[in-house]
## 1
Amino acid sequence: MALTILVTGATAGFGAAMARRFVRDGHRVIAAARRTDRLQALHAELGAAVLPLALDVTDEAAVAALPDSLPPEWRDVDVLINNAGLALGLDPAHKARLADWDQMVAVNVSGMMHMTHALLPGMVARNRGHIVNISSTAAIYPYPGGHVYGASKACVTQFSLNLRADVVGLSVRVTDLEPGLVGGTEFSVNRFGGDTTRARAVYAGTVPLTADDIAEAAFWVVNLPSHMNVNRMEIMPTCQAPGPLVIKRS
Ligand code: 8X3
């Protein structure tokens, strides 16, 4: 049965890959993003299975009005993929820009919460739904320069687990996807303020995950039998592993 899937951050990276993956198998995607030119391009590429939706997840009023502002035939959202998110900077905390911290919290935490607040009540009322939150391995494993990015993703992960506690027993699922090193997206370019040389260096000598890999994971968790809930899924490329703990010696 065709599902209606709302993806935030739908015009780049994971979001665009997810839109393509779900449409390929006959599902309908509400593609939410800020950049209208890219939305139109995605719409032109994928056709009527996509509803382009100009939306900034930090616009509280627009997000709150979302359920009622969708065309009636698109209102019963089956799956919300909270994908919009970003990392800004990799300097140590004592050199970081406060504005960068605020923006990461606004998008990664508040945006994700507001979208959930807008769409979860309808899912509970229909006793049908799935929230897929895109967290990160940075939620669990610290690294230098990760400070607020990692903390924001830890909030996404814990929020996801706590949502499960509230909807337990209902046919409403919650999944926290935690990707590690993923190349080929704007993520690192954005992190380094458009410095493509620095961004490219992040992936030098590696075979990172791709946006399509993450889209495949999202597609899989959503299409499992409805009684199966993947709570957390941590994904790394084979060239990446957690640890070891560091001991700094003099
Ligand atoms: C992205 C993974 O390691 O660049 O969420 O923070 S990492």
## 2
Amino acid sequence: MALLPILSYPDPRLRTIAQPVKEVNDDIKTLIKDMFETMYDAKGIGLAASQVDRHIQLIVMDLSDDKSGARVFINPKVTPLVEEKQPYEEGCLSVPEVYDEVERPNKVRIEALDGKGKPFVEEVEGLLAVCIQHEMDHLNGVIFVDYLSRLKQSRARDKVRKVLKQRDKHLEPVKA
Ligand code: K1U
Ligand code: ZN
């Protein structure tokens, strides 16, 4: 298994439109395992393949506290089931330490393939509905800060630069 580097905002590669997965083969299954390892390591609840620079329609998610709720969505289609939108404070592993409210429909239908390539349909609400829409946005090259004001986007860019600098500092080898 491997930890994959996560692209950070405003990396232009995050704007790439993901292509459908043609076959759920061993390469895809290895990528799924690596994405889970990467997501758990980063303390996230979801991860889209776009965020690890793989531009295919693949999402992993686990909303549980104990890694017991692993979910895979391949070639997902998401349809809102309600018109009304509700605010939720979102975060993003590609925009570290930036959190803000985004309004989305609170109930959606998901049609997708699971990690074995088996089709399923599910109607979901709450955090799962929020998270799948956030991850679908990644597959379409959209980042949650796109919904915020220009000022907040500029602040998010500054914040990410600062966080990455700080992370690099901690990774620097100790000089002898
Ligand atoms: O796409 C991603 O980067 C994953 C993202 C998913 C997400 C979280 C909250 C709302 C919408 C989408 C994260 O996991 S951000 C990580 C995080 O800070 C967080 C973890 C648990 C709950 C809430 C936020
Ligand atoms: Zn995200």
